[in-house]
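Page 47, continued from p. 46.
Same chain as before, 998 aa.
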Amino acid sequence: MTTVPGRRSSTFTRLLRHGFTDPSAAEQLLGLDELASVRSDPVLLEALGATADPDLALRGLVRIVEAEAADERQVLLDTLVTAKPLRDRLLGVLGSSEALGDHLARHPRDWQALVTYEAVDLHPGVAEFETGLAGAVDPDSLRVAYRRCLLTLAARDVCGTTDLAQTAAELADLATATLRAALAIARTAAPEDAAQCRLAVVAMGKCGGRELNYVSDVDVIFVGEARDGVDETKAMQAATRLAAHMMRICSETTAEGTIWEVDANLRPEGRNGPLVRTLSSHLAYYQRWAKTWEFQALLKARAVAGDPELGAEYVEAVSPLVWGAADRENFVPDVQKMRRRVVDNIPADRIERELKLGPGGLRDVEFAVQLLQLVHGRSDASLHSGSTLEALRALAEGGYVGRADAAQLDEAYRFLRSMEHRIQLYRLRRTHLVPEDEADLRRLGRSLGMRTDPVAELNKAWKRHASVVRRLHEKIFYRPLLDAVAQLAPAESRLSAKAAAHRLEALGYADPAAALRHLEALSSGVSRKAAIQRTLLPVLLGWFADSADPDAGLLGFRKVSDALGKTPWYLRLLRDEGAAAENLARVLSAGRLAPDLLMRAPEAVAILGDPEGLTPRTRAHLDQEVLAAVGRAGDAESAVAVVRAVRRRELFRTTAADLIGSYGTEDNPAEQDHGALVDRVGSAVTDLNAATIAGALRAAVRAQWGDTLPTRFAVIGMGRFGGHELSYGSDADVLFVHRPREGVSDEEAARAANTVVGEMRRLLQLPTADPPLLIDADLRPEGKTGPLVRTLKSYEAYYRRWALVWESQALLRAEPVAGDEDLGRDFIELVDPLRYPMEGLGEDAVREIRRLKARMESERMPRGADPTLHAKLGRGGLSDVEWTVQLMQMQHGWAEPGLRTTRTREALAAACAAGLIPAEDAQTLDEAWVLATRVRNAVMLVRGRPGDTFPSDAREMTAVGRYLGYEPGHVGDMLDDYRRITRRARAVVEERFYGAAS
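Result:
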C-alpha cells in the first residue's frame, strides 16, 4: 500500500474516523498476512469501531489469530465476518478486557464458546455454569474453565444482552459453581476427610446477595457437622482441612493465574475464630456475642455449596436473629457508629476517585438500604432480600422510601456499579478507583455508550450520580417520616405510625411518638413555611441523629421555629445559608446550655448564618456596646438588663463556636488544636464578664452620682477571671479597690465604694431570663470577715504586715478588669513584689505551699468523688497543674519576665523556654490542663450547670464524649484516656512540685 509522502492513506483516515487512537499502529496490524482475508471487509472495521477500545480489540484479535493453527485461523476469520453475534461478542470483549484477551491468546480455541447464541445461553444459571466447569479436575483446569465461562458472561455484558443486575447475578452464580467445583476437587483429594463430616459453604456479602463484581473477595462462612458415629472434634478437623483446601484452590496463584480470594473473616470471632464451626456453636456466638454489623452481614447469607440441608438449616436458624437485631440493646449506638463514614484510611489523593467508599459512593447506597431493611424487615418479610436493588424496590413499594428517591438511587447505583464492573473487567483486578489516565477514561466512557466526548461525558455523569447519592442517602431515612405525618399525597404509599416509630428508634430517638408530633407540627399543611420545613427537615433529622441527644435537637428546633416561624428571614436563613442549618442542628442537640441561651432570645440564631458570626467579640467592641446601652437606659435596672442580654447573646455565640469547632461540620472538620479551643473560650468568657461588670459599675454610678463617683474605683480579676481562663460556669473572683478623690473624706469615699459594690452585685443577680453573674470577693484580705472594699493604702498596709504565702500565690492571677485604669495599674505595682519575690521563695514558704496543697487534696475533695476523674481537685487535674506552675512563677518570676503572666499555659510555656522544666514534662502538664478544662466546659454545655466530674447519666456521658471527640460506644476509651493523661501529669507534679526539683 503506497501513499503520496505527507498525505494520510485512506485506511488511516477510516481508522481515525472509527475511533482508533493510534491509526498508524492499527494500519500496520491490518497489513499482517494473517489478516489478509478480512482486512478489506468493511464489516470488521465497523465492528472494531463499535468497541470500547478499537486499538485494544484489534491487538487482541491479532494475538488470537497468530496463536491459532493455520486451519483453525481461517475458520475464526470466516466466522467473524459472517456471524454478527460472534463478531459483536468477541470484539466487544477484546475491546473491554486486556485480561480476557490474554486468556484467549493462551487458549485461542476458547473463542468458540462465544459462537453459541441459543436462548439458554443468554441467561445461564448455576446449573449451566456447573456444566461449563465439569471438566475441571485440578486448580489449573478450574481456572481455565472459569475464565471460559467468564468470557461468555462478559460478552453478554458488554453487548448489552444482560443488564447490571443480571450480570452481577450471573457472576454470583458462576462463583457458586466455582466454589462447588473447588470443594469437589478438595474432597477428591481427601476422601477420608469428606467421609467424616458434613460441610456447608454459606456465601455472604455480594456473592450471598447475588450481586457480585467481576473481581471481588468471595465472602463465606463454613458450617460443619460430624457424620453419624464420628467424633465431633475429628469431624471439625476434617471439615477445616477441606475448607482450607477449597479456599486455596480458588485463591492461590498458579500458571493460569488466580480466580479470586475466598475470605472467611466474617465468621464468628473473625480471623481469631475457628474456620469451621458447628451450627450450634454459630448460634451460641450470635446469641451472646455478636455485634450489630455481624447481623447486617448475615442479611445476605445464602447457602451455595456443600451439604445443602445443613446450609439451609444455618440460614433458617440465623434469619430470626437478623430480623430481630433492631430490638437489641446496643442497636442504636451501633448504627450511629456504622453511619459515620470511615474514610480516614483512604489516602487524600484517592478519595475523590473512590467509587465504593468515597462521598456519594456505592457504600452509601448499600448501607442505607441495609439499615432500612434491618429496621423494617422485622415486621415486613417482603424486605428480606440480599440484593440491594431488589431491597430498594421493596422499600419503595412498602412506602419505606419515597418512590422518586428510590428511582434516583436505583439509577445512580446501577451507573456506579456499571463503572465499577468495566474498570475491573479491563485487567480483572480488584479495584474501586476511577482511573486517571486519559486512555483508560476514554475506554471506560465508550464502554458505557458515550461516544461524542467520552471522558467529559463520563466525568459529568459520574459526578451527577455521586451527587444524587450524596444528597439522598441520608434523606431516604427521614423524608418518609415527613410523608407519614404531612399526608399531602394520598396516592403515595407511606410509613405507618408504627414503622415511623421503629425508624426513629433505630436512628437514636428515645421518644419517637413525641418526635412524630414535632414533625407533624412543623411540616403539615400547604403553607410556604411548611413546604420549606419539609425541605429542611430530612437533612436536619440526620444531623440530630448524629448527636448524643436527637430528641432534644428536634424539640429545640420546634421551639425556635415556633418562636421565629413568622419572621421572614428565619427559614430563608436556614434554607439559603449553607452552614446555618447544620450549625443550628449541632448546637441544639449537643446539650442544654446553648439551647437554653438561644431560647431566651431566638433571634440570636442569625449568628449561625453569618460568616463572622462565630468569632468572639473583642473587649473593646463589647465595652462600646455595653456602655452605650447603659448611657441610653433610663435607670440602673433597665441598663443592666440590657447588659445581661448582651452577655447572654455573646455566651451563645461562644458556646455555639465551641460546639461547632469541637464537633466539626460536613465542610469543616473538628478543630484539632484543643488548646486553642480552650483559650478562645476562656478569653471570650473573661472579656464578656469583664464588660458586663464594667457595664454594671457604670449603671450603679450613674444611678446615684452621675458620671463621677466620689472615689476612684477599680475591679481586680482574680483566679480564673484574672487568668483569662473562665469556663462557662465560673463565678467572677474579684477584689475591689478604691482611692478617695481629692477633697473627699475617707468615710464618704468608703461609703460610696461599698454602695457601688452592693448595687453591682444586686443588679447582676436580679431574677431575669438571663443567666446571673455571681461576684465572689472571698479572696480579699481576711476573707469573708474582712471589709468588702479597701483603699489602695489599706491593701498596702495589710500585705506589708499580714500577708500569708497563699495570699501572695492568689495574687499571681490578679489583673484589673474594670473601673479606673490608673488605680488598677497602681494595684498591680503594689502586689508584684509579693507574687514575684526577689530571689524567689525561701524553704519555709515552699514547704508551706506544699502543705496547703496536700491539705486541700485531703479536705476539699467531695465525699465519694473518684479522685482519678475529678477535673479540678483530682489526680493530675487543674489544681495539680496550676499549683506546680505557680510555684515556678513565685520562685523564678523575679528573674524571668516571661513568667509574669496570669495565664497558666503562657507561664508553663515560659518556664519551659527558660529551662525550668523539660519540654516533655511541660507538654504532659499542658495536655492534662487542657483536657481537664475541656471536661468542665463539656459538663456545663451538656448539663446546663457546672460540674467538675463526668456525669453519671449515660446519654449525658455520651454527649460529653462527643464534645471531646469520642464516637458513641467509646465512653470507656474516653475515661481510660483521661486517667492515663492525668496519671502522667500527676507523676510530673510529684517530681516538680512535691519532689526535690526547685
